[in-house]
């Protein structure tokens, strides 16, 4: 078995023909595009297959073999036969081709850059696919699936059961989470998503998508009513350790997720983690009851409430440029007073200059005629100095740094549901019991509390304490040169009392 690597898993450095790409038109506005290589005019476009957006036209030839993340300028496209087709209401085949190659095709024309418009071309990721996929159903969004995948312990090599597949949003995210290489043959067990879909139309669409995204070795989709027919695949167990149920009645499918040998789709050797996704609390209640009845443990429910906060620095100050986001009010009393002083000073200087000018005019009435340019320049100087002072802000003040503020951004698309989690431990067999007994013998312990009576325990304790005291004493008594114990100062002082008097 050989598999072409999926652009979701191993995208390489550059875009290539036949691969999926995500086109970013604006923030939060993405589109999915299957890149094509054209050798002639396509759909009336002389440049070959062309993507048309509100930011202009982009022939695929301008999007091919460029690094992911590139910005691509729009092209001025030649609508050739397409334009005529519209006017004449004829089909493309009716349009006479200008000049054809040996295959009967018009070679694709080289694209020329348009005066405006651009897009970014991004490598596909489950997050971008979720934002751009064609919706056939409600889908699981990124904030939910990232949490779910972590809770059900999806990691490279995990085998996940998913039902229903719906629009494939969760399938793509889980495929990336479990991917640890493509299987080399039938016996090569790798991380895999076993997806089940009841609706025939959606099943076919999903099959096509999985194929065109080169995920065939990683995602296996089955057309199945899982309430009735369970989760076995071609009569074999998927050996799953993780389960995700996004179904209208998940409790109806739980009976097929037992550990009965022969019909169990679960890995018998490991704990299985499950998550069910339900919008109503009544559905949650039914699911929890059924999980408890069937022996699932650690049952709990979570609701994800995703909010995105836009954090900005509030810039407050009378001297700030008049820009968006700046508040031109004094940041504090000190700034208000400083500003007021400046304004007063400017006014005074201006009035002084005006008075001086007036006095000169009165004293020398012909001055204006004699030297009008000098008078004018003085007046200009006075008003200039006023402007200069008004704009003289000095170095940036600490209050210019402002406070941090936040506001919620328009909410990320998400459809709120309750997530129920639970764990099904492995079955405990006779064999396991024996192995555990051999490792930790039970009932043959010689020294456990309860095996010895109270008196004996007390005696044991006394002996233990006595031996400890003896050891401690032995350590504290110093030895003489021959290795005998020396008498301590206390011993020496005690001696005369016991000795009889000599005189
Ligand atoms: C909400 S959609 C799943 C969306 C999907 N999780 C996603 O992220 O795109 C639920 C899907 O479950 C399918 N479904 C409903 N009952 C089913 C059943 N008994 N067996 C299999 N699929 C079923 C529906 O056809 C539908 O496509």
TrEMBL record:
Residues 384-396, 454-465, 475-490 have a biased composition (Basic and acidic residues). GO terms for cellular component: nucleus; tRNA (m1A) methyltransferase complex. Transmembrane segments: none annotated. Residues 372-383 have a biased composition (Low complexity). GO terms for molecular function: tRNA (adenine(58)-N1)-methyltransferase activity. Residues 491-503 have a biased composition (Polar residues). Signal peptide: none annotated. The keyword Nucleus applies. Residues 75-110, 367-401, 435-503 are annotated as: Disordered. Its EC number is 2.1.1.220. One of its GO terms (biological process) is tRNA methylation. It is found in: Nucleus. Residues 117-423 form the tRNA (adenine(58)-N(1))-methyltransferase catalytic subunit TRM61 C-terminal domain. InterPro entries: SAM-dependent_MTases_sf (IPR029063), TRM61_C (IPR049470), tRNA_MeTrfase_Gcd14 (IPR014816). Keywords: Methyltransferase, Nucleus, S-adenosyl-L-methionine, Transferase, tRNA processing. This is tRNA (adenine(58)-N(1))-methyltransferase catalytic subunit TRM61.
């Amino acid at each position: 078995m050989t598999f072409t690597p999926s652009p979701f898993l191993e995208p390489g450095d550059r875009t290539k023909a036949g691969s999926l790409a995500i086109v970013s038109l604006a923030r939060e506005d993405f589109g999915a595009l299957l890149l094509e290589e054209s050798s002639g005019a396509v759909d009336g476009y002389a440049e070959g297959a062309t993507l048309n957006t509100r930011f202009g036209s982009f022939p695929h030839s301008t999007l091919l073999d460029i690094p992911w993340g590139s910005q691509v300028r729009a092209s001025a496209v030649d609508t050739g036969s397409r334009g005529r087709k519209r006017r004449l209401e004829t089909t493309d085949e009716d349009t006479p081709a200008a000049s054809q190659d040996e295959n009967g095709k018009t070679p694709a024309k080289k694209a020329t850059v348009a005066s405006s418009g651009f897009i970014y071309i991004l490598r596909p990721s489950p997050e971008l696919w979720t934002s751009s996929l064609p919706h056939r159903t409600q889908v699981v969004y990124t904030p939910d699936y990232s949490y779910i995948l972590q809770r059900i312990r999806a990691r490279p090599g995990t085998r996940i059961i998913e039902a229903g597949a719906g629009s494939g949003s969760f399938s793509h995210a889980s495929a990336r989470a479990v991917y640890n290489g493509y299987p080399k043959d039938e016996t090569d067990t790798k991380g895999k998503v076993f997806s089940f879909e009841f609706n025939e139309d959606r099943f076919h669409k999903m099959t096509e998508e999985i194929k065109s995204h080169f995920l065939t070795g990683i995602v296996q989709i089955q057309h199945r009513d899982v309430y009735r027919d369970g989760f076995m695949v071609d009569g074999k167990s998927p050996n799953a350790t993780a389960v995700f149920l996004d179904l209208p009645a998940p409790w109806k499918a739980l009976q097929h997720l037992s550990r009965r040998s022969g019909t169990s789709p679960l890995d018998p050797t490991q704990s299985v983690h499950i998550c069910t996704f339900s919008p109503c609390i009544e559905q949650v209640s039914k699911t929890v009851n059924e999980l408890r009845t069937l022996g699932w443990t650690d049952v709990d429910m979570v609701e994800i409430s995703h909010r995105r906060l836009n954090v900005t620095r509030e810039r407050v100050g009378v001297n700030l440029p008049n820009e968006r986001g700046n508040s031109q009010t004094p940041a504090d009393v000190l700034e208000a007073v400083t500003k007021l002083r400046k304004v007063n000073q400017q006014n005074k200087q201006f009035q002084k200059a005006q008075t001086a000018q007036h006095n000169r005019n009165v004293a020398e009435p012909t001055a204006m005629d004699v030297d009008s340019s000098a008078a004018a320049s003085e007046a200009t100087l006075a008003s200039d100095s006023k402007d200069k002072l008004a704009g003289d802000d000095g170095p940036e003040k600490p209050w210019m740094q402002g406070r941090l503020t936040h506001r919620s951004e328009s909410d990320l698309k998400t459809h709120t549901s309750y997530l129920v989690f639970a764990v099904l431990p492995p079955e405990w067999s006779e064999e396991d019991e024996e192995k555990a007994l051999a490792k930790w013998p039970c009932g043959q312990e010689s020294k456990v509390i309860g095996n010895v009576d109270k008196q004996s325990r007390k005696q044991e304790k006394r002996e233990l304490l006595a031996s400890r005291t003896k050891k401690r004493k032995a350590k504290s008594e110093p030895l003489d040169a021959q290795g005998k114990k020396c008498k301590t100062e206390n011993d020496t002082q005690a001696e005369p009392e016991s000795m009889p008097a000599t005189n």
